[in-house]
Amino acid sequence: MFSLINRTVKRMVLHREKARPIVRISDTTLRDGLQTPGIRLAPEQRLTVAKALAGAGVHSIDCGFPAASPLDLEACRLIAKHVQGPVLSVHSRTKNEDIEASAEVMGKVSPFRRAISLFIGVSPTHREHKHNMNKAQIVDTIVRSVDRATRHFEIISFGPEDASRTEPEFLCEVYKEAIKAGALSIGFADTVGFLTPDKAGDRVKYILDHVPNIDDAMLGVHFHNDLGCATANSLAAVKAGANMVQGTINGIGERAGNAALEEIIVAITLHQDEFKRGVTVNVQALAGLSKLVAELTGFPLAPNKAVVGKNLFRTETGVHQDGLLKHVDTYMPFKPELIGAGPVEVMLGANSGRSAVRHKLAAAGMDVTEEHVETVMKYLKSDSVSEADLPEARQFIERMRPFLAQDEYGESRLTEAESVELDHSPTHAAGRQG
Ligand code: MN
User: Fold this and answer.
1) pTM for this prediction
2) How many A from CA of 235 to the centre of ligand 1?
3) For 2-297, which CATH class?
């Protein structure tokens, strides 16, 4: 009787929550993100990231996989103890020992803020080669594990691995049974980053149309970036009706990484007319989150990384510089302040124009004559200034040095000789680029 009332109330709360016009942001930086080869974060560092994510207002945090490693166990314990706000979730196989370990580590968190994310591979490849189970055995395992988890958790999420390569009819059957057994949330995982945006949208629509009890669960999506489509796939899934998007800060994660949350959040924020829903995350916190994760993990952020790369707000090109100096919107899709970054940096390099050089000389507090501008321009175009040039030329260039974009990649610039060698040696060139 109690369980029936409990279920009815939970369902009502869920229906109300689902009706809100928001896209829920679920972070897995501390689980899938840390599966990046070579990244290792101490439990205290993970706590720092979790607090920052909570401060930014994410809906839920995938805290780790307690049964997988003592580091994860300790981190989950710390996060459970010290992080307020988001739903705190732990990753768990469909095994009793994992479920018990998850319950033990999350035991002190309020029942409405702790969650378990159960997973098992359901695609033909996973069924045959990994689990050696037929479809009926897989369904039975899922139902038993969800049922077992209801002993300890009010919020149970079930996210089958390799969902994108699973027969759609079987996938929907699996979801239906998991929801019937008590899962409040189901996940669509493109585990190997295989889909394209149209297919991602179609698969989400298919699930919404073919899982008969889908009203009783949230649908979350989880994409990987192997084909460079993770963000586009996530956005297509949102448009098709997914309630929640999972990803990582800076897109770190297995192989090519997970969908980068900062990209998804900014795209949804800039295109409210298209998505008809917003996010509850504080967009201004994104630059700080990105920096924090990059620094703690030591995982380099490409300068041209979408949304948060440092080149997003810098330019070396004359026409762009001239436009940006007149109005920042001329050559940027959004102002750096939107994500808490900035200011815009005008860099000097071979592509720079006179107005940028003049601007920089003046900003450095120097009396600008056209001769000075010419000297710097000559240096930028040729990398050298002869002794015959203005005696103070070197002084100008030293003063300009912080703005010189060319110093950025100094080590990797090819000499003329190397360029010639590469041109005649395709194998060597391929080796270099690989
Ligand atoms: Mn994943």
Assistant:
1) 0.89
2) 17
3) alpha beta
Show me where the domains of the chain are located. 2-297, 310-429
The angle, 0 to 180 degrees and rounded to 10, between the axes of the packed helices 70-82 and 96-106 is 40
pLDDT at 251 over 70: yes
Which residues, in sequence order, are bridge partners of residue 90?
64, 116
Give 151 Cα–ligand 1 centroid separation in angstroms: 26
How far is the centre of ligand 1, averaged over its atoms, from the C-alpha of 143 (Å)? Answer: 22
| Cα distance between the two ends of the chain | 63
DSSP 8-state assignment for residue 248? B
Question: What are the tens digits of pLDDT across the range 105-129?
Answer: 999 999 999 999 999 999 999 999 9
CA 286 to ligand 1 centroid distance, Å: 21
Residue 11 CA, ligand 1 centroid: distance in Å: 28
Ligand 1 mean position, distance from CA 213 (Å): 25
> What CA–CA distances, in Å, run from 308 to 79, 272, 278, 314, 342?
26, 20, 20, 12, 10
Residues composing the chain: 434
Bridge partners (DSSP) of residue 391 are none
Look-up of token digits 């969902």: 163
Rounded-to-integer distance, Cα 415 and Cα 399, Å: 26
The pLDDT-based confidence of 17 (bands split at 50, 70, 90) is: very high
Alpha carbon of 224 to ligand 1 centroid (Å): 6
Whether 267 and 23 have beta carbons less than 8 Å apart is answered as no
Q: How far is the CA of 193 from the centre of ligand 1 (A)?
A: 9
The amino acid present at 332, given as its one-letter code, is M
**159: helix, strand or coil:** coil
C-alpha 189 to ligand 1 mean position (Å): 7
Please tell me the distance between residue 88's alpha carbon and the centre of ligand 1 in angstroms.
Answer: 17
Distance, CA 190 to ligand 1 centroid (Å)?
A: 7
CA 422 to chain centre: 35
Distance CA(87)–CA(56), nearest Å, equals 13
| Per-residue model confidence (pLDDT) at position 425 | 42
- Give me the helices (H) in 310-353, please: 318-326
**How far, in Å, is the centroid of ligand 1 from the Cα of 334?**
30
